Amino acid sequence: MFSFRSYLIVLFFGMSASCFAFSGSSAKVEMWKRFEISFENLSWQGNPFDIILEATFTSPSGRTLKHFGFYAGKNVWKIYFMPDEKGNWTWQTHSEDVDLDGKSGKFTCINSSLDAQLVPEGKHWRLKAGKGDFPVIWSPPYPDGTHWGFRGNNTSDPKVQEALKFADEVVGARILGIGDLVTVPIDWAKDWPQSAVPYVKGKEGDEFYLPFWDNLNALMDAARDRNMGVYVMLYSDDALTPDNFGIKPRSEKELRLFRYVIARLACYPHILWDSGIDISEYRNNEWINWYASWFYTHDAWKHPVSSRSGGGSGGIMPEKGTYYSVGGATLPSRSDFLNFLENTQVPIAHTDHWRPFIKRGNWNIKKLRLATWRCGLTGAQALFPDFNQGIIQFDVVDEGAKQIGIATHFFKNELRFDLLDLLPHDELILEGDNVILAANPGNEYVVYAEDGGSFSIDFSDVHQTFTTEWYNPLNEEIIPNGKIKGGSIQPFNTPTKATDWVLHIYRR
């Protein structure tokens, strides 16, 4: 059973509000974890979700980060904050509500064993001030097969904990997909319970269902402690289009949602913001640019933000977008992946769900395995394999997840040099069909022979001695293949024919 870290609460007294927070020399929070402040306010009026609370946090180096607070129920407002710098922090609140304004405090951020924040690095993903990353998005299947099961059941549920463990230890996921955030229990979602949706039923746009958000934060805490985060696709389409519930472009209801999403979820290190499914059906390109700019401005940590384009999504890559969210139902070819990499200046995430249990895209385990290696060897483009829609076959889930996890393990643990430096170099392949290659020339080469067989690689321009190993993408077996010396063309034959193999070549 997962155990959550408890937080020390110290009570402060203000004018007519009380603040619960870490404070003083003993108030410590680990970097990338959640620092929480609570205020009681008995004099509020109107819709409590419209009372804007912000706090300015000042870091040990003098940086300032401004972050929203939120209404948490029972006359309490909270602020969730994520320190990203070791040392002593201070904070002060700002609000038009006098009972929430002008509160202040301090805490100390200490070192953490968690991975740093996922950030864009040119055209690639990396962990802040660290190595390159290969983010796989994963929608955790729940044992009873309900599409909403993971997000709608309590975090203490052993099945939810097992789903988190599976995503981490088997898949090697960096990001969890929880479905379209603004899901309303009608049409295809008519069987979704209140616990799985963000608004009180019948009060969409106006009143958030707090147990859903509390549980989502608990899920996020558990995911964070496993170095995972969440992909936040805001809107769905068709019958669940936000306009059908009064959430019109740039409206009071839309801004209420955006503030609440930022306040609740921006305090985690691995977050991807995205706009909505088939966004062009209900938002224009001007809105897409505005939305991305709004999130970029109000997210203190500048988590990656985009709007899905391509495929049937329509719309554009936002001017302030910091990653490219790609739609498309079918397996992209190597040339497709190369074109994405060449024609964008930001990291890429294939955010359309690649689903083997529905007909769309004709996906199966082999195609998902091919997609994972193609993504990894073309600038580590993120992908979203989704076994959580359709009639779930759990034996297929187990095998498919294992094969994806073999690839994520390779890129995380087997590379000798940084993933950021591993770039496509198919021009070095002189013979062989359906063979792709990425290299850090002179240091490391990774070859994926999609059909097995024979191929040759040109090492004429390098003169180092390299170690070679075969890596089996089906079972993680490593077969030593001896040493080679640069300065010539080298032939290779996969250990078995008619199945895919990975060749790993590196200098020590």
Strand content: 25-35%
The CATH level-2 architecture of the largest domain is identified as Alpha-Beta Barrel
In order across it, which strands form the biggest sheet? 20-22-23-28-25-26
Radius of gyration: 24 Å
Helix content bin: 10-25%
Content-based structural category: alpha+beta
Average residue pLDDT: 93
The tally of structural domains comes to 3
Enumerate the spans where pLDDT stays under 50 for 5 or more consecutive residues: 1-25
Described by the principal axes of the CA atoms, the overall outline is: globular
Tally of contiguous helical segments: 8
**CATH-assigned fold name of the largest domain:** TIM Barrel
Please give the alpha-carbon distance between the first and last residues: 41 Å
In this structure, how is the largest beta sheet organized?
6 strands, antiparallel
The top-level CATH class of the largest domain is: Alpha Beta
The CATH homologous superfamily of the largest domain is named Glycosidases
Secondary structure: number of strands: 28
